[in-house]
User: Which sequence fits this backbone?
C-alpha cells in the first residue's frame, strides 16, 4: 500500500509539472532578482497551497468534481467543468505543453518545425491516453523518476556554480505579486479539481468495498498522502527554479519564456545539457498533456452521453484541436489565457475555501461566486 501511495504521489507531481511549471517559476526568479524568495512565497500560495486545497476539496466530495461545482448552482455545475477543461485541454494548457516541448527539442533538432513536432507529440499522447492503466504506470513508474533525475542534475549544477546574487529588480511587494500572479498562469488550481478525481477513483479501488462504504474517512486519509507527497516535491522544484532564474538572470533575461530553462542549462552544462534538458522538457510536457487530454476527452464523452467505444474518436478530435491551437506558439496562447484567468480565478478560489470550511450555506457560496466573478469582469472591462 505504501508503495502505491508513493506512485500516486509521483503521478500527481508529474501531472502538475508540465509546460507552465517549466517556465513561470523561472520567470519569477528572472523578474525579481535579489527578492527571489518573496517571489517564491507568492508563487507558493497560488502554485502549491491553492492546488492542494483544490485536491482536498474534491476529496471531501468523494472524488466527484460535479458535486463541488454544484455548490455554485446548477448552471455552474454544467458550465464550469466544460469551461475549465477546455482551457486545460485543447484550447490552452495542452497546446502550451506542445510549444514548450518544441522549444526544448529545438536545441537538438533546430530545423524541426513546430508543425512537424506537434504532429509527433500529439500522436504519442494519443497512444498513451488510450488506457488509464498505461497513464498511471507510465507517469508514476517511468516518466517521473527520469524527470527527477534530470532535474536534480540541473539544479545541483546551478546551486554549485551559482554566481553572485543580482540586486533586486522590483520592490519587495512587487516581487511577491509577481510570484502570486505567475501562479495563476500555471492554472494548477483548475487542474487540481480533475486530477484529484482521477487519483481518488484509483485509491478507492485499493480499499475493500465494505470499508469504503462504512468509513469514507479511511479513503480520504489514504488520498491525502499522495497529495502531500506531490505538493512537497513540487515545492522543492519551484523553489529551485525561482532560485535558478534569479541567480542566472543575466543568462535568461533576454530570451523567450520557453527557452529560459534550455539557456540556463546550456550555460551550466554546455553541450552535455542538450539531450538531458530536451528530454526533461519533453517528458514533463508529455506527462501533463496526457493527463489533461485524457480527462478532457472523458468529460466530453460523458457530457454528450457517448458510448465507451466512442472514446478513441473523441480523443482524436481533442488531439486535433490541440495540434491546431499549438501553432499559435507560446506567446500567442498566453496572450488570451492571461485575461481569462485574472477574471475567473478569484471566484473559484473563494468557492474552494468556502466549500472546505462548511458543507452548509450553499446559497452563500453561490452568491459569493457570482458576485466576485461579476466584479472581476466589470473591473477588467472598465479599468484595463
Assistant:
Amino acid at each position: 500500500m505504501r508503495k502505491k501511495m508513493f506512485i500516486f504521489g509521483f503521478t500527481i507531481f508529474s501531472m502538475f509539472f508540465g509546460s507552465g511549471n517549466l517556465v513561470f517559476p523561472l520567470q519569477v526568479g528572472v523578474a525579481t532578482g535579489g527578492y527571489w524568495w518573496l517571489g517564491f512565497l507568492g508563487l507558493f500560495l497560488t502554485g502549491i497551497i491553492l492546488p492542494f486545497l483544490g485536491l482536498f476539496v474534491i476529496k471531501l466530495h468523494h472524488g466527484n468534481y460535479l458535486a463541488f461545482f454544484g455548490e455554485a448552482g446548477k448552471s455552474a455545475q454544467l458550465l464550469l467543468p466544460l469551461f475549465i477543461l477546455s482551457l486545460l485541454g485543447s484550447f490552452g494548457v495542452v497546446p502550451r505543453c506542445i510549444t514548450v516541448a518544441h522549444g526544448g527539442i529545438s536545441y537538438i533538432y533546430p530545423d524541426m518545425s513546430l508543425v512537424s513536432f506537434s504532429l509527433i507529440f500529439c500522436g504519442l499522447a494519443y497512444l498513451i491516453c488510450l488506457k488509464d492503466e498505461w497513464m498511471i504506470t507510465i507517469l508514476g513508474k517511468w516518466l517521473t523518476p527520469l524527470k527527477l533525475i534530470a532535474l536534480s542534475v540541473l539544479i545541483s549544477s546551478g546551486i554549485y556554480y551559482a554566481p553572485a546574487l543580482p540586486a533586486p529588480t522590483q520592490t519587495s511587494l512587487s516581487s511577491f505579486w509577481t510570484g502570486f500572479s505567475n501562479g495563476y498562469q500555471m492554472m494548477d488550481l483548475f487542474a487540481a479539481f480533475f486530477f484529484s478525481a482521477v487519483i481518488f477513483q484509483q485509491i478507492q479501488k485499493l480499499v475493500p468495498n465494505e470499508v469504503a462504504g462504512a468509513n469514507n474517512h479511511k479513503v480520504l486519509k489514504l488520498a491525502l498522502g499522495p497529495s502531500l507527497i506531490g505538493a512537497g516535491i513540487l515545492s522543492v522544484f519551484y523553489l529551485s527554479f525561482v532560485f535558478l532564474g534569479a541567480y542566472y538572470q543575466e543568462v535568461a533575461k533576454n530570451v523567450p519564456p520557453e527557452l529560459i530553462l534550455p539557456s540556463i542549462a546550456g550555460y551550466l552544462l554546455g553541450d552535455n545539457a542538450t539531450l538531458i534538458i530536451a528530454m526533461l522538457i519533453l517528458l514533463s510536457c508529455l506527462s501533463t498533456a496526457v493527463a489533461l487530454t485524457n480527462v478532457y476527452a472523458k468529460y466530453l464523452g460523458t457530457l454528450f452521453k457517448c458510448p465507451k467505444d466512442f472514446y478513441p474518436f473523441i480523443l482524436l478530435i481533442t488531439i486535433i484541436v490541440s495540434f491546431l491551437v499549438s501553432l499559435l506558439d507560446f506567446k500567442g496562447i498566453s496572450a488570451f489565457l492571461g485575461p481569462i484567468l485574472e477574471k475567473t480565478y478569484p471566484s473559484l478560489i473563494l468557492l474552494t475555501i468556502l466549500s472546505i470550511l462548511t458543507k452548509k450555506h450553499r446559497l452563500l457560496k453561490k452568491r459569493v461566486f457570482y458576485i466576485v466573478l461579476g466584479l472581476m469582469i466589470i473591473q477588467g472591462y472598465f479599468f484595463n
User: Anything to note?
Assistant: The chain is about 80% helix and 0% strand.
